Amino acid sequence: MVLKLISILLPWSLRRWVLNKFFKFEIHPSARIGLAWVFPDKLKMAALTRIDHFTVAIHLDTIELGENSTIGRGNWITGFSSKTNSLHFKHQPDRKSELIVGRSSAITKNHHIDCTSTITIGSFSTIAGYHSQLLTHSIDVVESRQNSTPITIGDYAFVGTNVVILGGASLPSRSVLGAKSLLNKVFTEEFTLYGGVPAKAVSMITKEAKYFQRTKGFVV
Questions:
Q1: CATH number for the domain whose boundaries are 34-82+93-213
Q2: How much is the pLDDT for 93?
Q3: CB contact set of 93 (below 8 Å; sequence gap of 6+)
Q4: Residues 171-200: tens digit of each pLDDT
Q5: Which of 14, 46, 67, 132 is the most exposed place for a label (fewest CB within 10 A)?
Q6: Could you give the CA distance from residue 15 to residue 9 in angstroms, rounded to a whole number?
Q7: Is the pLDDT of residue 54 over 90?
Q8: Within 13 Å, how many C-alpha atoms sit on residue 183's CB side?
């Protein structure tokens, strides 16, 4: 804990060395973490990745950021380490508490991301706006126990502001989840706008949409 506190105050080049040396992280020389408390068991940041100020990421097995991906300011990213001795989730021995983000994807700011089970975000995707919740765990009322299920978001997906995505849900590649929607099931149809509470297919999106054809992650 003392070393974690000290590391926050160090200049970035020295801080990165400390994180790689003593915490066994894998942070590329061109990657950067702002004034943020980011201490999963394993952190892998590829080239040109960034985690911005005031983000907290704790109690996870792994965070892995693909090249040129970003996590913005003020995100709360938590999990439930698979190494814990807690009775919670003992019935899920293969569970992994992970956040895996593909290349050139972005999580904007002020979101709550619960990685009790794995959350996978594909390449060139955006968790946009503010105040969305991605929640992989809940109480199974039938069995009266905590349960967790992964969330999957495909490539070139766009997640609108202030949504809720529950464990077991999947948003396919090249699709959009509208603002304030609740995604609670697996969808597979690409080039589709999903929306509502709960979300359903609303309309098709042209395959010519430029967002789905980007070669750069940043949208001007």
A1: 2.160.10.10
A2: 95
A3: none
A4: 999 999 999 999 999 999 999 999 999 999
A5: 14
A6: 8
A7: yes
A8: 36
User: Count H helices, E strands: the chain?
Assistant: 2, 25
What does the chain come to in residues?
220
Burial of 132 (0-12, 13-18, 19+ CB in 10 A): buried
pLDDT over 90 (residue 13): yes
Structure tokens at 163: 């949504």
Question: Tokens for 35?
Answer: 């004034």
Say how far apart CA 163 and CA 116 lie, in whole Å. Answer: 18
Q: Are 38 and 53 within 8 A, CB to CB?
A: no
Q: How far apart are CA 109 and CA 131, in angstroms?
A: 8
Indicate if the pLDDT at residue 218 is higher than 90: no
| Consecutive H or E run containing 156 | none
pLDDT of 113 strictly over 90: yes
Instruction: Determine the pLDDT at residue 220.
Output: 81
pLDDT higher than 90, residue 1:
no
Please give, one letter per residue, the 3-state secondary structure of 60-100: CCEEEECCCCEECCCCEEEECCCCCCCCCCCCCCCCCCEEE
What radius of gyration do the chain's Cα atoms show?
A: 17
Cα separation, 40 vs 63, whole angstroms:
7
